[in-house]
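Re: Re: token formats

Sure, here are both.
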Amino acid sequence: MSSSLLAWQERLEHHFLALRKQRSDALGDRPLFALEHDLTESEISDLSSIVRKSAPSDRYWLVWTVYATELGYQYEGVEYWPSFEENTPGWALGGDRGWLRDCFWKFTKTYGGARPSGPWATHFSIICWPITHAILSEDLQRQLAEILYQIRYLFRKELFDSPELLGNEIAARSWTTTRRFQMVAEEPLLLGQIAAALLIGEKDRAKSLITPDTLLRIAKNLNKERREREWLKDARTAAKAKLTGISLPSARLPVSSGPGLRQELRNLGIEPRVYLRPTLQGSWNVVLEIPDLGPLLSKFPELNETLNGTSVVTGANGRPLARGRLLHYGPQSVILKRWPDPSEVLLRFEKQSPELEYILSAECMLRPSSNWLFKVFSDGTAREIRGATIRPGSRYILLSRDEIPPHADARSATVECEGISATYLDIDPVFSLDGLKYFESLGLAPAKQVDVRPAGLPPVLWDGEGYAEWLSTDQPCICVSSDHQVDAITLNLEGPAPARLDLIPQQPGERIFVEIPQLPTGNHLLHVLVGSAGQILLGQLEVAIRDPRPWKPGLSEQNALLVIADPPNPSLEQLWEGRATLQVQGPPARQGRCEVVLTPDVHGTSHTFRKQLPPFVLPLPPGAWEKYFDANVRADDVIQNIYDAADSLEIRFAAEELGQSTVHCRREFAPLRWLVKWENHGYVVRLRDDTGLSQPASLTRYEFERPDEPIALQIPLGDQPFRVSESGGLFSARSGDLKRSVILPPLVRSLSQLRTDCVLHPHTKSAEDLNKFISLYELWSSARITGATLSATRRDDVLAAFMQALVHLTCGNEWISGEIEFERRTNDLATLKSTISRSPIRTGFGAAIWLKRDELTDQTNAKRVCVFCQVAKSYLDLPPLGNLPSSLSDPYLWIAEFALRLMTRPDALTRWAASQLNIGLQYLLTTPTLARGARFLGLAVAYSKAHDRSRLINLPNWEWQ
């Protein structure tokens, strides 16, 4: 046995020494990966068989390194060590995880191997090594194949000439993937080389970052599964077609001002469009159609986090758009209740970014004008005619900020939008002289008798006048004609791919068909110049080219059944714990169906579980979904018991001919994880610790009745269960900087035990006690709940006690008494307002907040902070703020946000405030009026629309990032 291990050790040493020299000579200081052993499948099997029969030994460290990497290559994204122990007999008893990490350290020092880095490597100090050296484990391979399929229409010849460009393109689309894939995407050159090898094969072996045999192995592995094989097949077909095509501009854009950048942004085609939609009452809704912002992210990947946040549409009267909605669901249509000022940016994101603000100010505003012309089409909608041209026999709607003078061809229309008026324009079959003068006074021009329109393959969108939209896979064709003799026609195409063509018609009225070259994505402008009897007639056609989006059930708002998840790709834990919301949109009163499918992890002993849920009525808003999911999934004893063994949860929606949609939620890969199971009329728990730290995790329990009193625990790690007492409580594990908590419900034997009275230790009005309650609030609010409703109810009781203590300490006795009355519905906000300050000088502070409450309800938190800060400065004599970083341009803006975070969502405060936490707490203790004003604004925004106020915790409409 030892001789065989020695042979493998010597062979691998020779291989990696030679590979190290070869790579250094060709590429310099580029890392090696243990997966690059270049062994065949049979050799890997032989090596693994011998290792399983032997004990760990320093003499054969390299063999064990390769063996551990092979298990990392098969990793499915859930747990590494159970698979390792299952495949390695005797490891659970005699293995040493720290020794295995030392093997990888030696590989790095000896051969220049890759070294894991970043937060993931910090939290998984041992597992990170074999998974990193596996390069692209099987769960990441599937994600790569799906992205290549999704971006296949973006392929260009230069992407395959420069793998780094291809890697950047993949990284820009990785917002839908797991965090681990995004970490791989931080090495765009390596990712691009893997992708290029999968699509077209490795062209330059000498410059490959990993060995060709390893690339070939990854490609073969992806061809095993049917779905991944089909994705790659389509992506390869698209790649080969592009290799012989023309090259198009692809360089990333610098985010800086200037006319060149404005033109580049215009070419991306991200400008919103306005159209009118009739209502059942005979009036019109103004609808803003926001395009897919994916092209923007492909050019500016650094805006990923901002674009994936919540956003607010200027003029809309509703909740902010869900996180990532403008990236994951195609174009979005939002009804405007107020006509935006031309100087207002139409779209605002919760997380501010100077670069994005510039981009939006350049391309996300209404076109400056006093009148906007819309043509009524046969489908009943009215689309904007940007050229402001009118044709005989057509019907138009003119929106205007000014009063439209009366005329025989004009009559009033009703539009459900403040700040704008509407007028019908019914154009006679023949223009009259009086009519022409009237239309010209409105800035409208009769259409010339030169016709330019799409021909051949129909465009995705054609407004009938001068705007057409095609896909990047289409070959646009246009028809140019005139009803009179013309001398010459010149076509001049402006945009990312400029071109010019001169034509001479042979006879009057001749239709000339012109095929336009395949164009890159973005906006193009086709000018048509027609020479006739010494005059030049001008016409134009706006051409927008966008990439096709892979079809998915419920992809866009135009589908009959639409499921929107917030966040767009929720994890299993986020959905289960209520940190993710779903809403199902569809025709009112139609019936929908829902099925949940729980899939166990690869090492689980349970089988796939399916449950058909009761029918529901469309639409299903977020609040109704939460109740539906709670009653039919969380409260199901069977599902509760198999939840911890599940790797993923699929929620499948269907509504007969309206369509289908699936939300897939995978489990987060956590270094600390509580496993809960119901056994023998009670709960048992286990702690899975994969941090790799030498010290075991510290374990603590908190009771519901005394939620601020920690009780130290000794629970065996590994597979040994620990039986929980009937009183339940919160169980917390801490390892280094990592924390994981779970709430287990008590065994209830009477109705009186459904709720609990929390008793907190005596506290003082000090920053120290405030800090303690904030930490405890974070602990309880972030803990995973089990036992469905009962756990959530007990947790809310605890959080309410902590919130009341926080408000009491900062706002005082009189305020907390008024808030308790408000919670009992015996008080209203107007009465509570008078409690902010009894000082005659400061009474205007509460009144000013009261007047702003409706305006701020549908604004972003950033806007709320600015307004609150301005009001506080105007009405309060705020003391100076010291010891804050000099980089803060306005310290009072910081303390305004600090106060609002504390009074609305305390669990979002500590990480944001960081080292300045105690400074902010001390300031609010000495400025209670500011704290009361912040709490009042929080309640006003949360409950001004009659939201349920049975629990004044985690206030609705306040979601901080």
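Second one below.
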Amino acid sequence: MLKFGLVCFLLIFLTSYCIGQIRQDARWCTINDSEFKKCQDLIAAINERKRRNQPYPPGQPTYDQLPLLKCVQGVDFFDCMTQIAGNTADLIDLEPGMAYTAGEYYTLMPLMAEKYTSGTGTDGLQFYSVAAVLKANTDINYNNLQGKKSCHTGVGTAAGWVYPVSQLITDGKMPIVQCNVPVKSAAGYFGNMCAPNALTKYYNPFGNNPVTVCKNCAGTDLSVFCTSNDPFANYEGAFNCMAFGEGTGNNFKQGDVAFIRHDTIFDMLNGSVKMTPNDIELLCLDGTRASPSDYKTCNWGVINSHIVMTSAFRSPDIRQSYKNLIYLLSYDFGDAGMFKDVMELFSSTKYGDHNLMFTDTTYQLVDVGSRDSYYSWVGEEHRQRLIALNTCPLQQVRWCVLDMFEMQKCEDMIMAFSAKNLKPDLNCVMGDNVRDCMTKIEMGDADLISLDAADTYVAGKDYNLVPIAVEDYSGTDRHSFFAVAVARKTDAHLTIFNLKQRRTCHGAVMSATGWVIPVEKLIETIQIVVKSCDVYYYVGQYFSKSCVPGMLDSIYNSKNSNPINLCEACATMGYERCLRNNHELYYGSTGAFRCLVENGGDVAFVRHTTARENLDGRNTAFWSRNRRSFDYQLLCNDGTRADVDSWETCNMGEVPSNAIVTANFKTAQEREIFWTLLNYAQQFFASDDNPDFHMFSSYVDYRDLIFQDATVRLSSLDSSKQDYLAYLGESFIRSMERMSTIDCITLGNVPVASAASSHIADATVITILMLGILLRMA
């Protein structure tokens, strides 16, 4: 009996669950009070239709078998897209431009389409983009729109923005002001504009769009001014902006031209006593003008109709139930519906507005069929228009990478940037080493690379490269970090003053953190005494063995005499051992710290962020698992030790952040294009929460690929700082110059003395230094 009762309970539960799944709500997202009221009235109309108990279309489910319509209030289209993507709303009707945005960035898909005629097939599933002017305004034509006041349905919309702006750019009439920012190009071309949403975060991420893009808008409340709820927004608003204007005296606002859809003119002037369609003319692309009825031959492009969209993550059964509901609403309350006396679905007159929930010129709603993706619905023409909209004077930017791991990330970066339609296109160039990349950029075979401070010095001094942007590791525009020495806590006897014959881990030879700062510190404290140009020989004599990636590269080992013990602590085997790139496992600050963790060395010279990045579970790589910050300490300049978070008071020196450099011959416009690409990219990909691509993180087992993983954001350098001397500052420049005094191999031009003959060169070097002192005293 108990088993039978349990089975019955499960059957009842499962039945209720399944019914609940079918009967779930269909939450329609509205963007203003009028639309919300119409949605509520539609719910009441459904209930009245049910009360009348009239037959349903053959083979179609009833309202009781379909999702229950509910109304959700959104702030604007973008808020509704966000709500649907976040499963707090389900449905919205969008014009094609917004539909493309909804599909690409919010993963929405089309269900049903507005059809504007009673014809069969694809008849009535399109409309035309037109430019409308007052007939009395005879001076305006396609060829002289520059400086005219313009009225747009909204930035990103097809008829009011994408098609007209892309057309003007393609025809060379609208100059490109800034890549990836067509709003600025339009603002530079037109006079005062009303381009709703031009100042919203989506189209104005840096808050620097010109105010003229909204100067012609009519909203008096800041919450609606220049948004999709502005009186001059959408088709009807853009038409009123041009045809009638609004305001009084000096506050009267009226545009010269409105970019709208062709049927807006007839819809807006139907029954009007102020104006008729005969008072309006269209601007044709050949420079002529035509009557509104000639829209098929005088237009700016053909656009597919508005579509009802939902999240692509809804199950096929749920999506089908939404389609059935929308079909029934159209069947009952559409132009030919039996219950039009209860509710006119495709009319907004009752609410004193236009195009609420659906376009008022809609005849019926039809299934999109196989064209059930945003891309297939809006079509290739729309995509080509978007490409034209983002036209950039520079075709590509070439990033120089140092190894296959950076190349892999760079290729992923290409795909990510392309998915967001960022221009110019990114390309990747493989360099043999960092100096080869510098050469490629100097010769014009590559454009950009991110370099540490020491390499930035070399790039500027020897290759005429300049920094244009820098990595920010704090998010506070502090473009520097601290070099620190890290040791195991158990080696309590170890201090900064007793490193002789210890094992050491360095990020790379001639890198700021891994070489210049620590070696200079040991020379300053007279622990290492360099008696000739060959600093490598004396460092090799001081330490027992080390991992200094790049130490045996021909660039730094031109005489083939560098001490082999400076590579003996490295981890990679074979010909890749001790290379100055990610093929060496102990390369870079994270690699040097790994060297310490895996007992390859007694002390690691790294960035102040490195320990924290790889301890206490922050790095999932096998070598850093179960490693605690409690087990490591910093070596301070006074011989004491401190915990790894005390880097502000316990460090070897402050170092300028890594810089993104380019060739000095690049023009100001090209440098601005480089920065705009990076700046827009980081708006999408700076966060590690982005599932598509992480700009400032790397793959497991490899760190700091292309950018440092500690980077929070990139910051641009103004023109006065776009010089390696101005950026690096006097203190670091002095460190590099001191290093060049003792390192004649890679930073100077003095003939190299071999280690075997160093004692012969000592007297010569001392004599030169003494002569210099005497000359300065004189």
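The CA atoms of residues 496 and 637 lie 7 Å apart. The chain has 20 helices and 26 strands.
- S.
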